[in-house]
Amino acid sequence: MSGFPWFDYRRGRLHAESVALEHIAREFGTPCYVYSRAAIVAAYREFDAAFEERDHLVCYAVKANPNLAILNLLARLGSGFDIVSGGELQRVLKAGGDPQKIVFSGVGKQAGEMRAALAAGILSFNVESEAELMALDRVAGETGRIAPVSLRVNPDVDANTHPYISTGLKENKFGIPFGEAEELYARARRLPNLRITGLDCHIGSQLTGLAPFAEASGKMLGLLTRLEALGLPIEHLDLGGGLGIRYSDETPPAVREYVAALCATTKGHSRHRILIEPGRALIGNAGVLLTRIEYLKHTPHRNFAIVDGAMNDLIRPALYDAYHEILPVMRNRRRGKIYQIVGPVCETGDFLGRDRKLPLSQDDLLAVMSAGAYGMSMSSNYNSRPRAAEVMVDGDRACLVRRRESVEQLFADESMLP
Ligand code: LLP
Q1: Mean pLDDT of residues grouped by 10 in the chain (418 residues)?
Q2: Cα of 64 to ligand 1 centre, how many Å?
Q3: Atom of ligand 1 lying closest to residue 64 CA
Q4: Of 59, 67, 265, 252, whose CA–CA distance to 161 is shortest?
Q5: For domain 105-278, which CATH number applies: 3.90.226.10, 1.20.210.10, 3.30.70.360, 3.20.20.10?
Q6: Is 263 noted as a catalytic residue in this protein?
Q7: Are 147 and 182 within 8 A, CB to CB?
Q8: Superfamily of domain 7-36+284-410
Q9: What residues are in contact with ligand 1 under a 6 Å CB criterion?
Q10: What is each CA distance from 333 to 49, 294, 357, 366, in whole angstroms?
Q11: Model pLDDT, residue 269
């Protein structure tokens, strides 16, 4: 057993659903991201079903992985989308997403992005500052449209996660200070080109306990009650994303438990639709990064496995010191050595895993697990490395959903001085 339901060993070979990863490496090359369609469908359905009778909308956080095949699959399942840029908006529309199920988050929305989202007719702008509120009213007025607005409020809750991905503390750049929300809603109501629709928060990512969610939703409900007492027409409560996944030995709450907790806290407000914005929990464990060992290097101090995937393909280990399980694609019974799994990029921070006990040989394939979220979406071309191919497996079929980039593509838009 690999511990990852959609990526498991059959006769000693690691598969994605029914396709051997070895076969994918041969056909599409490495490094390569491999996604399981069934894993994504199962994760979405788990969220959706957990709400039972409660009016809700699951808005996939596109930043986790914006591949069109993934967006299209989720759109067909009925998912909504949480976007943070005009680029993400275009992707969702291209993939067949319903504009009426899009919420637009982010602290720095530009006028052009607002115009595009107004023209598309999105469900709500999650506004993060007074200055943005004024800008949105102006842009909406110029285009002759009314902008649907929720304020993203910062509830000042400690999410107990990596400091770079905590967003709901008062020192973070996100959201409107909790104590200023009522006043700003009152202000928003007076602006002619806005329509208040909801109330929003998001406190961080990779949360592995329920307590911070409970604390945040409790505070948001208190605020909701006060806003309603002021006669503000709040239709939905957006409780953000953030549910963690298991990378190694974390024990995050099950989706069912998490959703049940949100529904229980908001029980007295069953008129309100609940929105959530999961990214990682929908896609994280539905993808792996497949990479091949170029060389083994044994020094008096350390053993290195130098693979063809690198920090430009998956930056999470370098950026957050994040742990990703690394499994051999072909299981063997040899005794392993302790290896540093590193890429070819010229940085000491270029590692995918440290101190892993594995039996390795040159040319072996490795699967870096739990790489579906914030893997490809945070990749870069550092060291002029073309970005990896992406493949989606559906049962016994493997489809290329993004071709490997070519080096020519990397400099196609550059020019030399005349
Ligand atoms: N909604 C908003 C407003 C967000 O800012 C985020 C993530 C999400 C939803 C989705 O959160 P999730 O369900 O995926 O935890 N690159 C980091 C994660 C950054 C998350 C930023 N915001 C990583 O690789 O761990």
Answers
A1: 92 98 98 98 98 96 98 98 98 98 97 98 97 98 98 91 83 91 96 98 95 94 94 95 96 97 89 96 98 98 98 98 98 93 97 98 98 98 98 98 98 98
A2: 7
A3: 14
A4: 252
A5: 3.20.20.10
A6: no
A7: no
A8: Lyase, Ornithine Decarboxylase; Chain A, domain 1 (2.40.37.10)
A9: 61, 64, 82, 105, 165, 167, 202, 205-206, 240-243, 277-281, 316, 320, 373-374, 378
A10: 42, 21, 13, 16
A11: 85
Measure the N-to-C terminal CA separation of the chain; round to a whole number of Å. 60
- How does strand 176-177 pair with strand 194-200? unpaired
pLDDT value, residue 70: 98
Q: How is residue 77 written in tokens?
A: 């399942």
> Which amino acid makes up residue 97?
G
The pTM is what? 0.98
Mutate to test the pocket of ligand 1, among 205, 311, 320 (most ligand atoms within 8 A of CB): 205
**Of ligand 1's atoms, which has the minimum distance to the CA of residue 244?**
15
Token pair of 187, please?
């202000």
